[in-house]
Structure prediction request, 160 residues.
Amino acid sequence: MATVFVVQVKLSWGVEKEYLVANDVEPGLDHRYKTRENWQEVMVDALINVPVAPYLPDNSIQPPIATAKVSTVKAVDDSDEVVRGMQRTRSQFIMAAIWQKQTTAVNYNFLRHDYDQQSQAQIKADVDFWQNGHQHPEVVAQTKQAIQKQEERLAKQIEK
Prediction:
């Protein structure tokens, strides 16, 4: 049995979801968990990239990515039924103490990674939302369409 970390995040359009922390972020978070009283502070209010649709069994098309804000983080046992099938965050995140002091351009440049154009547009809109409170309904609508398409692709692949 190992410890894994679950973050509750909020998306810029109001949806709240839970994710497992990315595999390559876990060791650092585990070290903090074992050595610090306030181990969660590195993640709480952080901006983090998350898949907002399922991955496909054949991995042919990546799901759309958005930048969410972490509400809470908790340590759970990896044998806990709750974590089975839970998606993982992506590795890109920026601590609240950092992103709140940087420009939206700097934060976006780090978070956009090498994602497709639609995901980059959503990430840019999300960073603007979290830093400046600006809504981007047209970008969110396109992301929601991409989510629906990905869910349809998944359904077709499961049928086979």
The longest helix spans residues 137-159. Helices lie at 26-35, 96-99, 104-111, 117-132, 137-159. The chain has a mean pLDDT of 95. Residues 104 and 127 are 6 Å apart (CA to CA).
